[in-house]
Amino acid sequence: MNKYFDEDDIRTRLLKHISASISHLTQRDFAAYLGLSLGKTHYCLTELIKKGYVKTTRFKNSRKMAAYSYMLTPQGIEEKSLMQVQFLRRKKSEYERLKQEIAQLTQELDPNNTTQLNRRIAHNTD
43 near 62, Cβ under 8 Å? Predict the structure, then answer.
């Protein structure tokens, strides 16, 4: 994962990862999944808890240490759905902008040989 997500991307990915988690994951697990520091992950999880999107349950793990499980609340499930729709819209928009930029750069590089250049680009991305 990339550590340069914006806050909405982080929230979306955290909510999605929490909802998909079957076992008890630690904040370190979430940090590793997102490619973020443990402190940043802790901050983001704490904010989701404050907003009522995530509920924590404390339990004793196999090493007799306190641990937490994270679950989405009904509000969290709703927020996750809304965030995923917004996330998808943003990514589609980024994709369309990139397609236009690639087409423009391709034309600028060699307007007479666009077809051959497009084949080379397609071949290199496969």
Answer: no
